[in-house]
């Protein structure tokens, strides 16, 4: 392949060993190059048996749900919304709404979501949102965790901001 051509093959490597996580995404060559450099910098002091790469990489299925795809083509199951919810101690109702929106984006592949999307997903996961979801979403917007993105079928659409993703992944889920 010449320099100007781009490959449609994107590789996402995500390796966690102990407290260290290395994640790289890009073309196969770029991802492998960056991963090797990061591995040398951050994973060199890890026991060699403990640091063996798993036989899987993250992917998004055609239906938009997140999963793990092994290199032999078979799939591992991904976490459900209820499982992510259980990972968080003493989660507030407004953070439950934020976590549900994050799940819709990161695990189900939605680019935006509505209050109705949140309610349906929370209900299917048997989670309880606050009685005033509009207020909870407004507070998350004020905190910089959510942003509005116009209308979607006549309802206000939202998306989780980078600040919101960091809050969920670092503060709530402890990644």
UniProtKB/TrEMBL annotation:
Residues 54-67 have a biased composition (Low complexity). Residues 45-78 are annotated as: Disordered. It comes from the Archaea. This is Uncharacterized protein. It comes from Natrinema altunense. The lineage of its organism: Archaea, Methanobacteriati, Methanobacteriota, Stenosarchaea group, Halobacteria.
């Amino acid at each position: 392949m010449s320099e100007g051509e781009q490959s449609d093959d994107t590789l996402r490597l995500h390796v966690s060993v102990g407290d260290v996580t290395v994640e790289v995404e890009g073309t196969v060559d770029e991802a492998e190059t960056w991963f090797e450099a990061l591995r040398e910098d951050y994973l060199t002091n890890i026991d060699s048996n403990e640091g063996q790469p798993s036989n899987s990489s993250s992917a998004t299925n055609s239906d938009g749900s997140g999963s793990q795809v092994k290199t032999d083509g078979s799939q591992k199951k991904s976490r459900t919304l209820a499982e992510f919810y259980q990972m968080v101690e003493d989660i507030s109702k407004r953070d439950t709404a934020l976590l549900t929106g994050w799940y819709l984006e990161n695990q189900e592949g939605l680019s935006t979501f509505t209050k109705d999307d949140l309610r349906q997903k929370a209900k299917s996961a048997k989670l309880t949102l606050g009685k005033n979801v509009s207020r909870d979403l407004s507070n998350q917007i004020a905190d910089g965790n959510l942003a509005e993105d116009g209308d979607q079928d006549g309802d206000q659409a939202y998306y989780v901001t980078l600040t919101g993703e960091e809050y969920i992944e670092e503060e709530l889920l402890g990644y």
